[in-house]
Specification:
two-stranded antiparallel sheet, globular
Length: 73
């Protein structure tokens, strides 16, 4: 199991819980996938999120992770 499998599992589980019990996925102490902040618009969140995780995931997968986070907020 790798980080991408864990992210998919977390996204699936978060769909089953309202509101999500875990606001952000903590992979290690230095790597956190951001969650949308109250009042934050989609464009601002997506930009902030991708910037935070692009080095770990690459641009295409970071986009997918961030859009998934936005849709499941």
């Amino acid at each position: 199991m790798n980080i991408h499998d864990l992210q998919r599992i977390r996204v699936e589980l978060s769909k089953q819980v309202e509101p999500p019990l875990v606001p952000a996925l903590v992979v290690d102490e230095k790597f956190i996938i951001p969650t949308p902040e109250s009042g934050e618009d989609e464009q601002t969140y997506i930009s902030r999120c991708i910037s935070a995780i692009v080095d770990e995931y690459g641009n295409e997968q970071a986009s997918g992770v961030c859009y998934s986070q936005w849709e499941n907020k």
